Amino acid sequence: MSRSGLPNYRKLALQAYRPLCAYCGFGIQEVLEVAHLDCDPQNNSLENLALLCPTCHRMHDIDLIPTDVVVRLRDEKRSPRWGKLMKDAGTKALETKRKNPGSLSAAAQKAVATRRARQSGA
């Protein structure tokens, strides 16, 4: 309980939910805000709380992000699929290597030389 007699709803929300904005996924815990979904700051039940970034919190408060969407996304177990960002990077890299087997960029050559120097000096 806080000094006001109300529970520390921020602490409750951070314990109950992943420290990410329920809507956009922003993840700096210190910046996240706790939204009261029914806009009643006295209603601190977990069902009424959601972690949102400041931008999404304001958009929710003016009904640009519907409450039912926030609740669904808050309760949904999501995990990133990093493979979608990589697409076919591995295949492209292999094709480039096959086309120019002896060619490395200047940065890659420097990295190889540095690695070899460190290994031989160790």
Would you report the number of β strands?
2
pLDDT average, as an integer? 85
Number of helices: 6
Following the backbone from N to C, one meets helices and strands in this order, namely: HEEHHHHH
User: Cα distance, first to last residue?
Assistant: 56 Å
Residue share in helix: 40-55%
Total tally of structural domains: 2
Q: What is the percentage of strand-forming residues?
A: 5-15%
What are the low-pLDDT stretches, counting only 5+ consecutive residues below 50? Answer: none
Q: What is the overall silhouette?
A: elongated
Structural class: mainly alpha
Strand order of the largest sheet: 1-2
Rg value = 24 Å
Question: Care to give the gist of this entry?
Answer:
By secondary structure, the protein is mostly helical. The protein has six helices and two strands. Strands 1-2 form a two-stranded antiparallel ribbon.
Question: What does this molecule look like?
Answer:
This protein is mostly helical and 122 residues long. The protein folds into 2 domains: 9-75, no CATH class; 86-121, no CATH class. Helices cover 46% and strands 7% of the residues. The protein contains 6 helices and 2 strands, in the order H-E-E-H-H-H-H-H. It has helices spanning 9-16, 54-61, 67-75, 83-86, 89-99, 106-121; strands spanning 33-36, 49-52. A two-stranded antiparallel ribbon has the order 1-2. The chain is elongated, with a radius of gyration of 24 Å. The termini are far apart.
Attribute tags:
122 residues; 7% strand
Fold blueprint:
Elements: H1 9-16, E1 33-36, E2 49-52, H2 54-61, H3 67-75, H4 83-86, H5 89-99, H6 106-121
Antiparallel strand pairs: 1-2
